[in-house]
Design a protein that fits this description.
Structural class: mainly beta
Largest sheet: 6 strands, antiparallel, barrel
CATH topology of the largest domain: Elongation Factor Tu (Ef-tu), domain 3
CATH class of the largest domain: Mainly Beta
Strand content: 25-35%
Bound molecules: S-adenosylmethionine
Oligomer: single chain
Strand order of the largest sheet: 1-2-7-6-3-8
Radius of gyration: 19 Å
Number of domains: 2
Number of strands: 12
Amino acid sequence: QDSKVSFNSQINAVAICRTPYKQKFGIPRQPGLVNATGYIEFEPPFNHIDAVRGIEQYSHIWLLFCFHENLAQGWKTTVRPPRLGGNEKLGVFATRSTFRPNGIGQSVVKLHGIVNRKGKICLAISGMDLLDGTPIIDIKPYIPFSDAIVDAKGGIAQEAPVLIPVSYSPLAQKQIAQYAAKEQYHGLNELIEGVLSQDPRPAYKKAKDDPKLYQVALYDLDIFWRIDANTIEVLELKPTN
Ligand code: SAM
């Protein structure tokens, strides 16, 4: 008897997520950790106001999406969660690994409303942990009475990650103030601080001295930083090439 369950279903994106996160490195590892703003941009035939009628009654929504940048690498039975320092293995279904059969991710994000952007129906959101351009395969309202389980056990992720302090060089301070004055970079300061205070480095780098110069890409800017004595220092911002 064939134990494989197969079904003929083609899943297409209903929307594309627009976020300030232009590369995987630096994106928070779960939603709600960094107050970044973004948009869900509907694709035809879902680009219709009727498809979102009533959604504004909810403060949060579930996004089901595809880890499209990792699909080509397939999946493994076990993974090494960053939380465990990269040393211990857990089963793929016991983790939020991005390398999974079917490559499906899910995140609860804050909903700010329905907006029209360049003729497209969009949902304004914040707190997402998604790469810019991520295909959204479904959207559902978050229902607190059922979805919020206050006494749930969180396994290896019981608590939010510990934040580390972020400081700024005089140059970075001046540059951030200049960019943040422009509408398109609204909240840049908070975004940089939120992203870096999570310490995005891989687990194996955290145990020892680390002189490396790091870069994260937010909007169309490359943010250069390094870590010293457990404080991250933002050195400089440069427009992405
Ligand atoms: N909350 C979701 C979940 O549990 O399914 C995602 C958790 S996953 C650990 C979050 C990470 O996915 C981010 O830090 C980023 O590196 C990665 N990521 C986000 N969007 C992606 C995409 N479109 N393709 C591949 N990786 C992505």
